[in-house]
Automatic annotation (TrEMBL):
Alphabetical UniProt keywords: Membrane, Transmembrane, Transmembrane helix
Family classification: Belongs to the purine-cytosine permease (2.A.39) family.
Membrane-topology annotation of the record: Multi-pass membrane protein
Protein name: Cytosine permease
Signal peptide range: none
Gene3D superfamilies from the UniProt entry: Hydantoin permease
Annotated organism of origin: Nocardia aurea
Length: 458
């Protein structure tokens, strides 16, 4: 659905949900936004989660197998992200407000609260990564100062979100592209070791991969992409067309995340124990180009904080997003000074189990059943059947991959034992939970439509 072609470059995102969203973002604006989100320091510091999925200690799959897992997970996750972007572009509604049409107004509060929690977690992790990277880049210094500066930059960007997106397109994206190219050239000059080397006794199959862990690694890569799914419409509601929204979200994000993760895996291959980012800082002009990536990381925390504010507005529609953004910026800064990244993989697993099946329900109802016609008003009726489909998908995910989340994981392991369920190497938690949610949501929708038709005839 294209918007007016009038000049609206001076317009900003609305302050409350009562105001309409200006359609001002072109395909290239959105491509720059998603491309920058795809390049994250998480791809460097978190690349090891692909090689040692759901385990502790040494790598369990080879770097080559990790690259294959990462590409598959990112491509599938990018397509899912593109699907999640379309409803916002078509309706002009933010992500959590759209869930009023999927679940009903009151029931939409459940995924809204979960989304707020995961976004605060992501925003906090981003500031932790920025602080750690800056500390390593400058050889020490006051880490708290790096975190506070990153928190301030994040908060300022959220005050003018659409202006920040345009800023990324005009200035930041080119610098990031040059930095990535520079590091690829330098790493190849360094000479990469054997990427197919068997990491240990667990290795089997092509590239030394244990395929039971290979699919867990794929799910880990997919979870990073899908973590943006519940916020995509917050930005694509400003898109000039649905095609631009889908193409930018699926294509630009997927491409740059693949490039960033492969670079992170190469860095692991070249690492000599000289810190997480040692391989980047040790090459010619490495510190200068790495500084670009560290500075750019603020767009990740900006996107998380802005979407947290918009998600809160689904609960309190008339609260000014600027006030919410300032409070949230201060909150994640405090949390980043207090917490660490020890539970990163468990965090990813929980995100995937919640939001992959949620997207499945959305796809079944928005694209296959309703044709995009949803009631997103404050009194939209509850739709318990869609909640059921979501919970079925979540259960499938947890049965296949309970993750590493303490008591939550222990409970699902007991369910596995009670059902005498044994995961098979070919099972992907993300894909099977997505398909299960689609199937149940479609069947529930057909049943409801048939009852409505019978009632109308009666």
């Amino acid at each position: 659905m294209a918007s007016s072609t009038a000049d609206t470059t001076g317009q900003e995102a609305p302050l409350t949900l009562d105001q309409p969203a200006p359609r001002v973002l072109s395909f290239w604006d959105q491509s720059a936004f998603w491309a920058n989100l795809g390049v994250s320091l998480f791809a460097f510091s978190g690349a090891y989660t692909v090689l040692a999925p759901n385990t502790e200690g040494a790598a369990q799959i080879s770097i080559a197998a990790g690259i294959v897992a990462m590409i598959i997970g990112t491509v599938v996750g990018g397509l899912m992200l593109g699907l999640a972007a379309v409803p916002g572009a078509k309706t002009g509604k933010p992500a959590m407000m759209l869930l009023r049409g999927l679940f009903g107004a009151k029931l939409s509060y459940v995924p809204t609260v979960l989304n707020i929690a995961q976004l605060i977690g992501w925003g906090t992790f981003e500031l932790i990564v920025i602080g750690n990277a800056a500390e390593e880049m400058f050889g020490g210094g006051p880490r708290w100062l790096y975190v506070v500066v990153a928190g301030v930059i994040t908060t300022v960007l959220t005050i003018w979100p659409l202006g920040s997106v345009r800023l990324l397109r005009r200035f930041v994206t080119v610098g990031v592209g040059v930095a990535l190219l520079w590091f690829y050239i330098q790493f190849f000059r360094e000479g990469l070791p054997d990427l197919t080397a068997d990491p240990g006794p667990e290795g089997s199959g092509p590239f030394g991969a244990d395929w039971s862990l290979f699919w867990i690694a794929t799910d880990a890569a997919l979870a990073v992409s899908i973590s943006w799914m519940p916020v995509a419409a917050d930005y694509t509601r400003h898109s000039r067309s649905t095609k631009a929204a889908f193409g930018a979200a699926s294509g630009a994000y997927g491409l740059t995340q693949i490039l960033a993760y492969i670079l992170g895996l190469f860095a692991l291959a070249l690492s000599t124990g000289d810190g997480t980012y040692g391989p980047f800082l040790s090459v010619t002009l490495g510190a200068a180009f790495f500084f670009i990536l560290v500075l750019r990381e603020a767009d990740q925390s900006f996107a998380n904080v802005y979407s947290t504010a918009v998600s809160i507005q689904n609960l309190a529609p008339r609260v000014d997003r600027r006030a919410l953004s300032i409070g949230l910026g201060a909150l994640i800064t405090v949390l980043a000074l207090w917490l660490d990244m020890d539970d990163y993989f468990g965090f990813l697993g929980l995100i995937g189990s919640v939001f992959v099946p949620l997207l499945g329900v959305l796809v079944a109802d928005f694209f296959l059943r309703s044709g995009g016609e949803w009631n997103t008003s404050a009194d939209a009726p509850s739709r318990w059947g869609m909640i059921l489909a979501w919970l079925v998908g979540l259960s499938v995910y947890q049965l296949i991959n309970p993750g590493d989340a303490g008591v939550w994981t222990d409970a699902w392991v007991r369910v596995q034992e009670w059902l005498h369920f044994t995961k098979q190497p070919w099972m992907s938690a993300s894909l099977l939970s997505f398909l299960a949610a689609v199937a149940v949501a479609w069947l529930v929708g057909r049943f409801v439509d048939r009852r409505a038709s019978v009632s109308a005839r009666g």
